[in-house]
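Support request, please re-run this one:
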Amino acid sequence: MVLGGKRFLALVHVLGEEADTTITNAGLRFDAGHAIPHHRAVTLLTKEPDTLAWIDDLFEPRDVFYDVGANVGVFSLYAARTKDAVVMAFEPAAENYRILNRNIALNGLSDRITALNIALHDKTTLSHLALSAPLPGKAGHTFDSGGLGITQAVLGFRLDDFVRQFDVPVPNHVKIDVDGNDLLVLDGMATLLSDHRLKSVAIEINPAWGDDAVPPALAAAGFSALTGDRYVNRAYMAGNFARNRFFARAAP
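Re-run finished. Output below.
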């Protein structure tokens, strides 16, 4: 039997709706219909144990968490479920944002996670996100970089401007993982860094900056690096990859 074009598309749609493309890990459900989101879901507990330790150790119930560069939301979901955190998940890439929202819905966490399809930066601007590849779950995109190739128009905000303009809760914890623009995001949150409601910051550090380097903005605001094996990702260090570092404000 040969199906016409419309009937074929209708059949594909029905099969896609009926097929169960979700998986469960650590009590969380994930859209796993594409290779990279599937991998992120499967490796939730193993890929970045340092980030999970940061959430486990420093977050208190109902703390406000800003997940900057949320991708498909594995850490947003984890914090909301395990710590009852109030989460704002910032993800500018449209393909990732779509799955991020589905993951939130799959877990019934729409009351605790607000997903925003915007970029954070050191200036408030309308610019473009240069995509490393237009694939669900993909990382390596850069905002306002002037890159060529496949781009997506995106609104970018200084985090200070965003909080002031929309009168949203001040974060208690911020994770910054934006593949190269991390220090620019930090530059855009100078006012927040001086607010003692902000208790900790996780930021991806390029090895070229030096393992012992504390970003000057964090040092000036009274943050110090967390030490100990729980906050070290040995696999990333062995491969000389960019790695997460964790900073907490000194107790008053």
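The longest helix spans residues 5-18. The first strand starts at residue 22 and ends at 25.
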